[in-house]
Write a structure and sequence with these properties.
Blueprint: H1 10-18, H2 23-53, H3 61-65, E1 67-69, E2 79-81, H4 91-96, E3 98-100, E4 107-110, E5 116-117, E6 120-121, E7 134-136, E8 139-144, E9 148-152, E10 163-168, E11 175-183, E12 186-188, H5 194-222
Antiparallel strand pairs: 1-2, 3-12, 4-11, 5-6, 7-8, 8-11, 9-10
Helix pairs in contact: 1-5, 2-5
């Protein structure tokens, strides 16, 4: 795969030769500069790229999701990934477009303004966690209102003595609400320019860092 970012290190290499730096010291200095640019770029993706292209229902999600995999002197590759999100938010699909599918070949699409947490829909709002939720006609519903008791006779009880045995939903102010629509797949368009903004921001911060910043990093490596 082609590199997303290219930058000219010729001036830095000349400075390294003047300082008689070893290859390891040069690699350390380049790594330190790359990492600093990546952390600045992450802040740009969080504060500008994502909120400018997506309606945020949970403003803390993107900061949680995006992390930096720092480079080292033995591996001069730096990455910004969504590994912490474990697929939540479908950031790769937002970047490149595609089709979202699940293991069971049905995607539960929220339609009722579910509450969000740091990793997407709050656990208490997911289909498997909703008390009394059930599936009907390609959707997931939940009952609402108070549950009133049903009293029945139990074996061994004398006439007139009753015990609670479960309950049922119904009556005034009670009913069911559709929470999710089940679909075999959901198309997600490429609507967030993560790759473009990553490239532009990295190149900008590396240019700003310039030879002076890399030379300072080089001097630190030589101490």
């Amino acid at each position: 795969m082609a590199a997303l970012v290219k930058f000219d290190t010729s001036a830095f290499e000349k400075a390294a030769r003047r300082l008689d730096a070893s290859p390891k010291q040069m690699a350390f200095a380049i790594s330190k500069t790359l990492n600093a640019a990546a952390h600045e770029t992450r802040r740009t993706l969080i504060s500008q790229t994502w909120p400018q292209h997506v309606t945020q229902r949970n403003k803390g999600f993107i900061a949680f999701a995006l992390g930096v995999e720092n480079s080292s002197r033995t591996n001069l590759t730096v990455k910004i990934t969504d590994a912490r999100a474990k697929g939540r938010g479908n950031l790769l699909l937002h970047a490149d477009g595609g089709v979202k599918r699940t293991e069971h070949h049905r995607v539960a699409v929220p339609i009722a303004g579910q509450r969000l947490g740091a990793t997407g829909i709050a656990k208490s709002q997911r289909p498997e966690a909703i008390p009394g939720a059930f599936e009907r006609n390609g959707a997931i519903f939940k009952p609402y209102g108070k549950k009133y008791p049903t009293y029945v006779y139990k074996r061994g009880k004398k006439k007139g003595q009753v015990s609670k045995a479960g309950g049922s939903w119904g009556g005034a102010g009670r009913g069911i609400k559709r929470m999710f629509v089940l679909k075999p797949s959901v198309a997600i368009k490429a609507d967030v320019p993560f790759r473009r903004d990553f490239r532009v921001s990295m190149e900008l911060h590396l240019r700003r860092a310039g030879t002076a910043a890399m030379s300072n990093s080089l001097r630190s490596a030589m101490r």
